[in-house]
Every structure is written in structure tokens, then in C-alpha cells.
Write a structure and sequence with these properties.
heterodimer; A: about 525 residues; alpha+beta; Cytochrome Bc1 Complex, Chain C; 3 domains; 4-stranded antiparallel beta sheet; two-stranded antiparallel ribbon; B: about 250 residues; mainly alpha; Cytochrome Bc1 Complex, Chain D, domain 2; 2 domains; about 55% helix; elongated
Amino acid sequence: MDIPGMAFLNSVSDKGIKRAVTDQVNDVARAILAGISPNEVRALLRGDPPTEKPNPRYRAQVKSFLLHIRPKFYQEGSTWFSHTFRLGLFSTLFFAVEVVTGLILMVYYTPAPEVAYYDMLNILSNVNMGKFMRDMHRLGAELMVISVALHMVRVYFTGAYKHPRQFTWLTGVVLLLVTLFLSFSGYLLPWDQLAYWAVTIGTSMAEAAPLFGYQTNLILRGSQDIGAGGLLRFYLLHVFLLPLVAIIFISIHYYKVAREHSISLPAAVEEGEAPPEIMTKAKKKIDLLPDLITSELMWYAIALAGMVIAVATFFSAPLETHADPLKTPLHTTAPWYFLWLQGMLKLGDKTLWGVVIPTIIFLLLFAIPYIDVGPSRLAKNRKFGVSLGIFTIVLLVVLSYMGTGLWGVAAPPPVELIQEFIPQEGVGEVRLIPYEQLTVGSFSTNDPSTYPSGELGRIMEEMEVAVTRESAKSNNNFFKGHMNVTIEQWQTGLKKFTATVFWEEVPESSTTGELEERSFERTFYFHRNSNYELLE
Amino acid sequence: MLDTKILVGLLAILIGVSGVVFVGINDADRRVEFEEAFHARSIEQGAALYTEYCTECHGLQGQGIEGVAPTLNSQYFFQDRLSEIGYQGSLEAYITLTVAGGRPVKSDQAYPREMPTWSVDYGGPLRNDQIDNIVNYIMNWEEAAPELPPPGAEPTPVPGDTPEERGGNLFQGLGCVGCHVINGEGGAVGPELTNVYPEKGEDYIRESILNPNAVISEGFQANIMPQNFSERLTDQDLNDLVAYLKSASEN
């Protein structure tokens, strides 16, 4: 009769207790590590050659699911950091960070307008390490957009999209789009002013699409305006559909690289133009286990440590006030990776610049490897392609600048002045003044002798400079301007802060050019515990 | 080469884990800080909302306006109001409910205007988070709320030695000045009264106080002025007010 453990007892009687236990441990380790023994692990970490024949490292790559996706060995040239910058690896890492932190955040989040914002406040003020998770998720998203975009730039400039990698490039462009939309769909979920208006602008672009624009917008928003339906749709896109598409296309993309054509060698090596000693070195085989995997794990650890340090010290995901469909904040901007699109929209027709041209740009991007069929990957043989690439990048930077509030759409000077110091959303300088230094009283930039000491006095001086600056601009209808600040004790621990801009202007209807007095004010209340530095 | 990578990797892991531990250790304190900050910001926003929507009836500092809406900023409201009406919930809940739903039934004859519904749930203009902000702002009065006589208490005699002086004090105390301008002072909700005595005469003044809708001046709305002065004013008060308006036109 076979009894569990009988085999072990037999081996104890055969080989003695010490040997039997060692063998048993070895067997368990091999079962877990896809056939790699503890001895072999030691050899791997030391960089020693394999301890057994056939090579147990290659065997592991057949037996282990996670390892079987990876090639057994690489040509050294394709793994040089200066060639790929490990950007594909980093993109994968950031995607994984998003999945893990996203799953945790999902536990505390309800996609409904009445509660979404409360859930954000709860995550920040009540969930253990909730702010850490949210900041990691946000930072991971930004880094993923950056690394995916840079990955594409690298592939473009090294000509790695050429034969036989055309289709891999195509799936990569799909992944770029998925990354952008993943990030953008997550933008709405906090249900604050930033989210609401950025997405309103974004979806209104869809509305400008010819023929089916109205329907697209309706499908995205769930109604005429973004509301409960829109939030739920964006949530489902963000946590289900887009990640699913991403996982499918990452799999296709990586399968092509791993099984069909491998990572490209540097162009000079591939085309035999590198010096002979570099050629030999580049074509040397290096094993995934342990050489490359060690390097990859090192970069993972460095990137994660960097993210943790950033989140622990300076990086904070922003959270503005509750979404309000009735109040459009001044200078609403798209997320930074869509600023180029917002810049193009300022050039003219919404349908042409917001839909038709971006679509053409992405179609061209998809088609690059099928248009540029020249065989050489070397930059010197692709002068047009490389110049076009540099030109496009410069253009994107310029368009992005045009997309910010710094270009083209200045509000009247008084509004800009107030906005500069007490923005509707976000923090601004005034909200950072310590509560005790908000001296009760009235102060005017006309009379610097009344300035209180401390931060408030310093900011009054800055206001004076800003008023002079606005007055000096020749095209501003803004004369004899000055700013007043009034601070009242309003409630226990609450002060009322009123900033008023007084100026004179020539009314539009005026024929004589006579000046008329005007004023514009903004009031806000300042509580001693509101601590605006927390989300800065 | 491998050694260096393993070493650097381990170092990075160490730094990363220390970072997480550092965040974890400080997180409880941070959460308290955030909770405090969010409450404070809620009060700030509540202050702005209160000023926009509530001051017209409850006064700029919650002092209430006689005949329009009750005082909120008083010890009575924070200490005794709930036990007096026999409400079992918290004061926050009471305020939230009243702001959100308004007054469904007439509860107090002293205030002819009904509290309207404010929540979007009941057809009002405010979201529920905005109502929470207003409630937090009102609750922030509790600490320094003044001791005021409870509503319905025997009125203290109007101070002043002459009819004109008493009338002037009544004009301030009843809140008339909130809506009517006299000699450049007062609100613009109702018509200016500086010259009402010589222009319209004494009877007109008496009628307009006791029955404000009898004649509505051009450009103003009916039903804004409290309708219950006939119950609240003695004959003496009425005479004093007329005397004050007469003297106002002579200045």
C-alpha cells in the first residue's frame, strides 16, 4: 500500500536524514522554479555557467508560462541601453503599476456623480495610504504616456519600423492611442472641475466630427452633457474596455518581437557599417537568464524606487473643487499630452483642425512603414525621414505651447490680475499666506506705506508690479489701475478676503474716448485649517 | 557586471521599500491633516454659498431678520432648538434636512415667507455637497454664537427718549434699513423713504407698514416686505416710525 510520505521515509533509510532532506528541498524548489535547482539559482546569481546538462535555464523557458514568452537569448547589440533605452520595458512596468494601483483604487470608488467626489475625499483623508495609491496611479499614467511616446520616437529615428517590423509598428501605434485614451478616460473619474471641463472639451471635439459627430458625442457622454451616464461610460472604458484592448495588443506586439523578428540591432551594426570589434560584440549571444533578466529587474527596481521617492516627496495628483456644469473655470486646458490638439483648435475650424487633421496624422503614423519602404535604416540614408521627424517634434512642442492658456486667449486685464493671485481653481499665491499673517484691514497698491508686514505685504508688492505690467501693455484698455485688498474677520477661524481691481477704460460705445471707472472683485473665504499646501 | 546590477537592484529595492514604509508611518497623521483641511475648505465654500443664497433672509452673519427668517447664529439655535421642537437627530441633520427640503408645512406664524427647497433632489438649485458645505459653515458659528433672547420672548422696550429717536431705532432693529434707503443709507430692495412723508402723507405710511401689498411702488415686487407688522407693532411703535420718517425728510 502507498502511504503519503512513504517515499521520503524510504529515502531516509537509504541515504540518511541529511541527504534525504536536501534532495527533498531540491525537488520542491525544482517544482516551483520550473526545473531550476537551488544550486542553479546560486550559479545564476554568481554569473557562473549552468550546473547541469542539458542547460536547465533553457528548460525553464519551455516549462514556465511566464518565461516561455521571452526569447532564450538575445544579440547583445539589441540590448544596449543607448539603443533602446529599455522604453518598451518601462512602458510594460508602468502598465503593471496602473493595473495594481488601479485595482486597489477601484475598491474605494463608485462611478456616480453624487458620490465620486466624496470617494476621492475619502481616499485622500480616510483610506490608509490612499493618497499614495492615487499619486502612484497618476504618476504611472503620466510616465506611461511619456515612455510609450518616447518608445515610438526611438523606433522612428532608428528606422526600426522597417521590414520585417511593419506590423509591429502598426500595433504600437494602436497601443499609443490606447495609452492616450486610457489616461484621458481616467481624467474624468475624480469628478472635479479639472476633470469635468477637460473631458467636456475633449468630447466636444468628437462632436465636430463630420457625419457621425453628434452620435459619437452622445454615445461617449450618455446625454447632451456629461452626467451620470457619461461618468459610468468613461469608467467602464477606463477599467474594462481599454485595458482589455491594451492587454490584447501588448500581447500581439510583444509576440511579434519575441517570436518573429526580435528587437532590432543598431542600424550601423545591421548594415555592416560599424567597426569590426563592435560588430563582433553586438552579434554576441547573451542569455535571458541570468544576464538580461538581471538588468531588467534592476531597471524595474530603479524605476519603482524613483516613483516611490517622487510620490513621497513632491508629486501630488491634483484635486480641484466638485464638478460644476454651470461654472466654466478660466483657462480650461486639456491634459498636457493633448495640448497640441487644443493648440490646433485655436487655428480655426473645429471639424478641420480638431478631427480631420488629427485623423490624417494618425493614419499617416499607422502607414509610415508602408510608405517609407527604403531598405536602409541608417540616418544618413533617411535624411528626409529624420528631418520630418525632428520637424514634427518641434511642431508638436509649438502647438502644445499654443494650447496652453499662455497663448492667444487672454481674458481682460482685471480678470487676469485676479486670476494670477487668487485662481478660481488650484492654489495661487494668496491661499498660501499663513492664516495669522492675513492682517484684518484694507490695503491698496496706491499706498505702499499701508502694506502689512510678512507674506501679505510681499504679495501686495507683487500685485503692484503686476498692475504696472498690465497697464504698460499698449493694446490693453486699462488705465489708472490699482488693486485693493480687504480682509475681514468673518467667523471663528474664518477670514474673508476681497481683492478688487479698480481701473478706467474707454467704453466700447464711446465716440469721444472719455474714460469710465470700472471695478472687478473676487472674494474668497480663508479658514485657518485649510492648508492649501497639502495638495500643492 | 552581474554583481553590480544585483547590488544596484537591491539598493533600489531597499530605497523603494524604505519610501513605502516612510509614507506608511506618516500616513495616519496625514489623513487627520487632510480631514481637517477638507472640513476647513468645506466651510470656506459654505461661506461663499451662504453669502450668495442665504443672507437675504437669514442675515449676513446669521443674525436673522425679524419677520423674514429666524436667527441661526445664537446660543438658542445651537443649544435649545432641537429639544424645543422635539427632533431626535443631530443638529447637522436638522439643518441639512431643512436646507435640502425647505419647510413642507407652515411651522411659525412669525415668518410669513416659507423656507424654499434648495436641494436639486427636490427641485432646488444646490447640489447636496454644496448643502453640506453650507451646513459646515453654519455649524462653525457654534463656538462663538451670542446669547440672544429666544424667539417669542417679551420684547424689550425700544430705547430712546423722543418718538423720532425710538422710531429710528425701530427702523434699524426691525431690519427696515436692510431694504429701504434713508438719507443715503440702507439697501435697495425696497423704495427709498427719505421723502415719503412729505410726498405720500402719514396715512399712506401707516397703510404700507400694516398692509405692504396695498400699494406697490412702480419697479418693486409685492410680497417681499414682511406682512405681519400689524401683529408685531404697538400703536406707539407705529407712531414712532411715522415720527422718524417725518424727521428724516426734514434733515
